[in-house]
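Chapter review: from sequence to fold.
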Amino acid sequence: MFPDDSEFSQIEARLRTILKQSDRAIGALERAWKSNPRGTSVAVRLANAYSDRGEEDRGLGVLHEALARDPDDKMAHLAIAKRLIMSNSQDDETIEAHLSRGFSKTDHNFDARFHYAQFLFYLRRGADAASAFQDLDRAAPSGFMSEAKKDGSVVSQRIGRINGRVVRREATYLFVHTSIYPRDIYASERFTSPEFWEQMVVGTFVTFATTFNRQGPVAINLRPDS
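The token string follows.
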């Protein structure tokens, strides 16, 4: 009765995914996308499915097709930026452009804001990153990214280790100052090995990796900078 209804194909895709029938799931998503559904959720799911089987370029093609249908689609912009970051693209200008178009200051696209603030930190635009994190912290609901992930984020993996100096030390946490960010960066003993944590005293020069919560960067895996 409704052979071109994209909703039926999306339901089939979910069923095929549950049954671990990946090729059939992709086929159902392709039919759903061909039926011109509203929004970009089908395109994002299809792009992720292509990526899972190593067809990254094909996934990006679907997302660019989504933007061709609606150049202002925030979900598509964010999805493209994430795919470029995960594929280790060095086109920082394009990634930043897509991230900046993934939200507006009056919407609830907090994940896009969070990734944008992280990417500004990666670009060493510390003041802009701090401002973006402050705006996010004010606007997002209380449960959004209140805790940093121990293993970092897709952006964290691009940043590499940063030089800094311990400026305050308590029993279970400390703060590190680095020239690339206007605020001192929090570090918890939970995210550094006990061997190195014991060497952290005020004035110690260190290197560290980063993860993020809604308030900004968090220093992890601290090491003395010898």
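Two observations follow directly from the output. The domain at 6-102 is CATH 1.25.40.10 (Serine Threonine Protein Phosphatase 5, Tetratricopeptide repeat). The mean pLDDT is 88.
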